[in-house]
Amino acid sequence: MKLSVENLAFGYRRHLVGKDVSFTLDAGEVLCLLGPNGVGKTTLFKTVLGLIAPLGGAVMADGNAINRWSPQNLARLFGYVPQAQLGFFPFTVREVVLMGRTARIGLFHTPSSRDIEVAEGLLQLLGIDSLAERPYTEVSGGERQLALIARALAQEPQVLVMDEPTASLDFGNQVRVLSEIKTLASHGIAVILSTHDPDQAFLCAQRVAILHRGELVHCGPTEEVITPAVLRAVYGVEVEIVQIESGAGEKHLICLPSFARLRSDMVSDSS
Amino acid sequence: MDQQKKKSSRFRSDAIRFGLAIICLLLLFLISFSVGRFPVTMSELLHLMWSKITGTPNNLPGAIETVVFRVRGPRVLASMVVGGALAVSGAVYQGLFRNPLVSPDILGVSSGAALGAVLGIYFSLGMVGIQVLAFAVGLGAVAAVYLIGTFLRHHDPILTLVLAGVVIGTLLSSVVGLIKYLADPYNQLPAITFWLLGSLTGITPADLWSILPAIAAGLVPLYLLRWRINVMTLGDEEAQALGVDTQRIRLVVIAAATLMSAAAVSVSGIIGWIGLLIPHFARLLVGPDFARLLPAAVLLGAGYLLGVDTLARTISTIEVPLGVLTAFIGTPFFIWVLAVSHRAWR
Question: How far apart are the first and last CA of chain A?
Fold first, then answer.
């Protein structure tokens, strides 16, 4: 499976949020989308997913434009992890995960025992099987996020689109989700995720795209895109990229923000 | 193994809850037949029903048979059908619009039906004419709201529908007010007021037969689409991302729920509260899954209106209007449900 986004323009009818967005994604690849708050990452995701009609350009799966696909076929291609929100009715966590099976459940049917098996397996995989009977509205934000990831995996998608999947998670669950993303990619699923933390891109993504002022200003291998100059241009802060070696002898890159220079900037700004 | 145990205990607790609801409904059913201006004792009632079922002759006075089968029978059955229909459409609307304050009238079905009925009374059309007009204008009002919603596409579809329902409902209510103002205060105004407060007095078997097909035609698709309705409660975008054709499902579900409530209201007049209150109570009892919520809403709605209607015709020498009684009983009940289920919806 090859997903390609070609010259996509996106937004809401009279309000263009971004344009000229192009990238491709192969099976097993992880693409990390970075960008400041409010730049339109969620809108871009919803447009790629076919939830919002594009204002221009196209999204292709193996060369076929997907804009006329039925919601059912789209839901089998894309698994979607939206930013966790409070549920409305007190469905149990298991029922929420089962809702991920909808595109594989007949119009007039309810989940089969096979669907329930898949849901149980995913609840265990994400370590939330003990919450299966709890109302989704009463578990913590991090647990809701894990349930949403399980729900997206229940779709058995080829492409997983995750909107800030680690935003409301504690450190342990962040690490668990990132490692899960790597495992999924090794099983051939393509993953697109947005995050605010460039270190996460170093940890799990082969490629990084940066959305800034309505355009993809950079898109390429993680080490080439995430540089002090790019981060300064996009976020307005000074960062050093440091290479460290883990105990196992593997080399890793991390971002080290420089507060001193930030402070001197502020002083010079105000003077 | 563990999973199976969990499943069977869930099944057992559901069976107990539904069993209790059915037993309560049956008891109410029998009580409702026996009380009234012409009391029928339980043994007479059971004897009569047994002889009717088995076809054996009975030696009870003919008046009892007339009261039970001609007078109370249609009314008891109608209260159950109307109550169940209003509760189901309320449960569906609350799920679809993701709003616990929504009742079946949110899209203007009640104000449309009221206008139809009031027009029928104003033009002295007779009982059948009034019912047909109430039904037709009720459906027409919701169709108008839906069309407005589809024209204003660039907003959130659910919000647009609710807002359009509110304004159309207000417009129709003001027309109802105008007709009341113009109506003959001695002949027509009491009939209009009576209809607007809801009543099952004088309901005939023919009335009952006339609404049953519409109510069944609404109930069947709603039950068949029970899983899709569950997913729709996540909101439009999430439901679509999970593979639901939201536009089409929304249209079918609104049409089915509207058909049910319009049919119910056309014979009973405006009976508030059931569509708002009973879904909450049903959700408290069996949870939000529509596969269980729909049957629970049918049972509880049927029992609630049956009980209230029995009270309406027995607590006083004159009939108490149903709409008044449902509100009097519904208000404290609703506050109680709110207190008990403080976290059930958010």
Answer: 55
Q: Which residue carries 């070696």 as its tokens?
A: A245
Pairing of strands A207-212, A215-221: antiparallel
Confidence class of residue B44 from pLDDT cuts 50, 70 and 90? confident
Rounded to an integer, what distance in angstroms lies between the CA atom of residue B244 and that of residue B235? 11
Q: What is the ipTM of this complex?
A: 0.90
* pLDDT above 60: residue B150: yes
Dihedral sign for Cα atoms in the order A59, A62, A66, A71 = negative
The per-residue pLDDT for range B249-279, each reduced to its tens digit, is 999 999 999 999 999 998 998 898 899 899 9
Q: Give tens-digit pLDDT for B46-74.
A: 888 888 888 888 778 888 888 888 888 99
CB B298 within 8 A of CB B280: no
Question: Which pTM was predicted?
Answer: 0.90
Residues of B in contact with A100 (CB under 8 A): 242
Residues of B in contact with A138 (CB under 8 A): 343
> CA dihedral defined by B89, B92, B95, B99, rounded to 10 degrees?
-10
A49 touching B (Cβ < 8 Å)? yes
Total number of residues shown for chain A: 271
Dig out the tokens for A10 from the structure.
Answer: 């996106």
Tokens of A196: 């605010």
Query: What is the per-residue pLDDT across B321-339, written as a single tens digit (0 to 9) for each?
Result: 888 898 888 889 888 877 8
pLDDT value for A267 = 54
Using the Cβ of B335 and the Cβ atoms of chain A, whether some distance falls under 8 Å is answered with no
Burial profile A180-200: b = 16 or more Cβ within 10 angstroms, e = fewer: bbeebbeeebbbbbbbebbeb
At residue B1 the predicted structure's pLDDT band, cuts being 50, 70 and 90, is very low
For residue A236, the number of C-alpha atoms closer than 13 Å in the C-beta half-sphere is 8
Tell me whether A15 touches chain B (CB under 8 Å): no
Q: Which of residues 207-246 of B touch A (CB under 8 A)?
A: 224-228, 230-231, 233-235, 237-238, 240-246
The span from the CA of A121 to the CA of A256, in Å, is 39
For B233, the closest of A78, A86, A88 (CB atoms) is A88
Residues A32, A193: contact at Cβ < 8 Å?
yes
Is B4 an 8 Å CB contact of chain A?
A: no
Residue B305 CA to residue B82 CA, distance in Å, equals 8
Among B138, B103, B108, B107, smallest CA distance to B275 is for B103
Quote the distance between the C-alpha of residue B16 and its chain's center: 24
Spatial separation of the C-alpha atoms in residues A192 and A26, rounded to whole Å: 11
